[in-house]
Design brief:
By secondary structure, the chain is of the alpha+beta class. It has helices at residues 7-23, 26-35, 40-49, 67-84, 86-105, 108-120, 237-242, 245-273, 285-313, 319-344, 354-362, 372-384; strands at 125-128, 144-148, 151-162, 169-175, 188-194, 200-204, 215-226, 275-276, 279-280.
Length: 389
């Protein structure tokens, strides 16, 4: 097996690190975290750097658009972004999934309209899926869309809609047609609904972690969308979303790989610099052991994530590997930030500490974008059918 990373992987990592060294200090990141928003001009910079075009075909202004290579490079980008600013990585994932949705299911007109704007950082879209009464039971949604004249009328409520406050439009998963043969997944459509209108109200949720991601609650009260606003096939919206689950889980895993890596870096540096009883605290086994455990688990989740991304790049089944990567990485990030926080002690609790922010951000992982309990259900059913369990 060749464990040497291609040159372009190292170049991407270096470019992300230079971006933060040049443009975003910890103080600036902390300000965005407190204000719970990421300035839109950052996405313009990402567009100029080509990072928004990883999932956009070249003919629409992107850098690739191939589902395989884009997810490998996307995982590297997510890890490096998360080492500094996980909220930024989470929002980038949504932009990447937006590009994938239009690339694979959009009409020719939608591709021509939105993909070039996505690649430039001129268009932001949120996904409206979860509802207050449904949680992970997405298919029990109550949001409806109906044709009135030559427009869609959208009514309902969505919860935990990341990016909604900054979005130009929201892809709302709603029922447009009756349930077929008792199958709730049928009859659901993705209706691209413009955000800046009277019928759309966005209320920012003040989350403990990933605060700058801009997660919001959205109310649709006779919101209007053009007649051609359905992305993909009408009544098949849920199935369109399912096709992106593996990539979403891989990129989410990469976010938590980055968080664990950053926490380890901070704790190791502190263990070198901080002295007690005449020695650096890193010389004591009580400090060394938890850091060794974090380093070992970090290596494991990075390999899991890279393997899942590679399988997808080869067009091979990676559903189980992607799910395991998300499960392991998110749980590891929680443990890693806890162990590293104990090394820093009181200094880790100070808000100016990057570890304090990473500690909070890691807590989102076990239940987003899918709960780890649901991941375990999926893996259990997948393997039970093969007689493994």
């Amino acid at each position: 097996m060749n464990f040497k990373a291609p040159e372009e992987h190292g170049l991407l990592r270096d470019s992300v690190r230079r971006f933060f060294a040049r443009n975003l200090s910890e103080t600036q990141i902390r300000t965005m975290d407190r204000e719970r928003r990421i300035p839109r001009d950052i996405w313009k910079e990402f567009g100029e750097l080509g990072w928004l075009g990883l999932s956009v075909p070249r003919e629409f202004g992107g850098s690739d658009g191939d589902a395989g290579t884009s997810v490998v490079m996307g995982a590297i980008l997510c890890e490096e972004l998360s080492r500094q600013f996980p909220s930024l990585a989470m929002d980038w994932v949504l932009l990447s999934m937006t590009a994938r949705l239009f690339r694979e299911h959009g009409s020719a007109e939608q591709k021509a309209e939105y993909l070039p704007r996505l690649a430039r950082g001129d268009f932001i879209m949120a996904f409206g899926m979860t509802e207050p009464s449904g949680g992970t039971d997405i298919l029990s949604l109550t949001t409806r869309a109906a044709m009135e004249g030559n427009q869609w009328s959208v009514n309902g409520q969505k919860l935990f809609t990341t990016f909604a406050g900054e979005a130009d439009a929201i892809a709302v998963l709603c029922r447009t047609d009756p349930i077929e043969n008792g199958k709730r997944a049928r009859g659901l459509s993705l209706v691209l609904t413009p955000r800046h209108q009277k019928g759309v109200e966005v209320r920012r949720l003040e989350l403990m972690g990933m605060r700058a991601g801009g997660t919001s609650e959205v109310f649709f009260d006779d919101a209007r969308a053009p007649s051609d606003a359905v992305v993909g096939q009408r009544g098949r919206g849920w199935y369109h979303l399912l096709s992106s689950l593996d990539e979403e889980r891989i990129l989410s895993a990469a976010i938590y790989v980055g968080i664990a890596a950053a926490a380890l870096d901070i704790a190791v540096q502190y263990a070198k610099d901080r002295s007690a009883f005449g020695r650096p605290i890193g010389a004591y086994q009580a400090v060394q052991h938890p850091l060794v455990e974090v380093a070992t688990e970090l290596a494991q989740i990075r390999l899991l994530t890279e393997k899942a991304a590679w399988l997808l790049s080869q067009g091979r089944d990676c559903a189980g590997d992607a799910a395991m990567a998300k499960l392991a990485a998110s749980e590891t990030a929680v443990r890693a930030t806890d162990r590293c926080m104990r090394v820093l002690g009181g200094y880790g609790l100070v808000e100016e500490s990057a570890l304090e922010r990473l500690f909070r951000d890691a807590r989102l992982g076990p239940f987003s974008p899918i709960s780890n309990e649901m991941v375990k259900n999926f893996l259990g059913e997948k393997w039970a059918c093969r007689g493994v369990i």
